[in-house]
Task: inverse folding
């Protein structure tokens, strides 16, 4: 059981690091766009949102591949299973049940789902206010900066509120 938690924790940390890096880049780009854009039209907002959402979706896909790689390295799925599909089903918490982890690795699927929920939540939780919520971006782009507000100091308070 400890091995499953170590592998799951390691894969989670890699996925979180990827997500944090990409979210930081998204926030920095949003700050630049907010500072440079004179026009605050809906078209500008759409022009910012489309690549932003695309980049965030790509981040999730990369994170799924991290989990698929962990499944491959530790032989988590039955022989012949599509590991990327299996990782996507777990990461997105779909839980189809058509592919199950091999005996001895059953905890890795829920760990994958927990990681996916957390990282989806980080993107979705735009109303969360934290120390970096006021980064100087135009209010229309504020939702991009607010998702970066998780810090070690406020994660505990956030978890107590769940």
Result:
């Amino acid at each position: 059981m400890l091995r499953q938690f170590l592998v799951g924790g390691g894969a989670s940390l890699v996925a979180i690091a990827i997500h944090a890096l990409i979210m930081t880049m998204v926030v920095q780009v949003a700050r630049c766009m907010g500072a440079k854009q004179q026009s605050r039209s809906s078209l500008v907002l759409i022009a910012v949102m489309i690549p932003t959402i695309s980049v965030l979706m790509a981040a999730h896909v990369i994170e799924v591949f991290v989990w698929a790689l962990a499944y491959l390295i530790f032989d988590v799925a039955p022989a012949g299973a599509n590991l990327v599909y299996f990782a996507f089903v777990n990461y997105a918490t779909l839980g189809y049940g058509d592919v199950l982890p091999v005996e001895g690795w059953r905890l890795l699927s829920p760990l994958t789902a927990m990681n996916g929920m957390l990282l989806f939540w980080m993107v979705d939780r735009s109303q969360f206010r934290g120390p970096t919520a006021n980064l100087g971006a135009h209010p229309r782009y504020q939702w991009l900066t607010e998702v970066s507000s998780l810090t070690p100091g406020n994660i505990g308070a956030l978890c107590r509120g769940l």
Remarks:
- The first helix runs from residue 2 to 36.
